[in-house]
Specification:
- This protein is α+β, with helices and mostly antiparallel strands.
- It contains 4 helices and 7 strands.
- A 4-stranded antiparallel sheet has the order 6-1-4-7.
- β2 and β3 form a beta hairpin.
- α3 packs across α4.
- The longest helix has 23 residues.
């Protein structure tokens, strides 16, 4: 648990979180911390199988994107991140349980921009 803004965990099998479980290879843990500046982590996560953990500092991630010499990289990241946050806000408005686990369907929707 905590309020730090970092982290992505991608599991080949399963990631479990109190109140929810990632069940698909393409589910992510804590991606929202990269895009939503006010994101608060929702609890503790425990891997129940081998998985790959990559810690990404959200602030440094943003700095790298903004310092990219490629206008495409900046625009793609800003567009994807904006759509990602819009989808999270939409879920919250519908009273959908928000989780640190990002369902791959949300990512797919954000990618269709």
């Amino acid at each position: 648990s905590g309020s730090g803004r970092s982290g992505i965990m991608k599991g080949p099998r399963n990631i479990q979180e109190v109140g929810g479980a990632a069940e698909h290879i393409r589910d992510w843990l804590s991606e929202a911390a990269l895009w939503a500046t006010t994101w608060q982590h929702r609890g503790d996560a425990v891997a129940v199988a081998d998985c790959l953990v990559v810690r990404v500092d959200a602030e440094k991630f943003g700095e790298v994107i903004l310092s990219s010499p490629s206008p495409f990289v900046k625009q793609a990241a800003m567009t994807y991140g904006g759509e990602f946050v819009r989808l999270i806000n939409e879920q919250q408005e519908k009273a959908v349980f928000l989780s640190d686990i990002t369902d791959s369907n949300v990512v797919d929707s954000a990618m269709k921009i």
